[in-house]
Give the backbone structure.
Amino acid sequence: MAILIKHDGTIEPFNLKLLRQSRWSLMAQSRHRSEESDEYDGEVDFGAEFQSHDIELHCVTDDGLTVEEKYQRKVEISDTLNKLRNGDWLMLESNPGKKIFAHFTGRVQMEEYPSWLRVNIPLKLDPFWVSVEENSLVVGSISYSTTWRKFEGMTWREVINK
């Protein structure tokens, strides 16, 4: 069960509408790491460290819900979010080839209004977007000392050690 944010702002599988307050950075937060040493001139650069980041999806339900329907929607949303404790993919319909792993963290906040609900969903996103398509490395044949040898179903380490 992946989370899909559609062009019109609908969040599936919750059937909620996303509010504009739900902006987040598409790039991972990074922290540049370097250290200086008294024994050497300059500094040692350890590169950048990418971190997961927290977002909060601000959403609303459809208008015109009765008291019983609001209670039922609360139960449905809570059950779906509990299934997301271990994480699942978040995808944007506007960016169909990419997905990012998201974990439900904290507590969902639900504010009740006369005929609708406002829902805030806290998520923790992994640092990198990945391709929706499965990518796998298949080694068909390798030129090895002017002869061709077949290596099918082997890892690179196994091929190099041959």
About this structure: The chain has a mean pLDDT of 78.
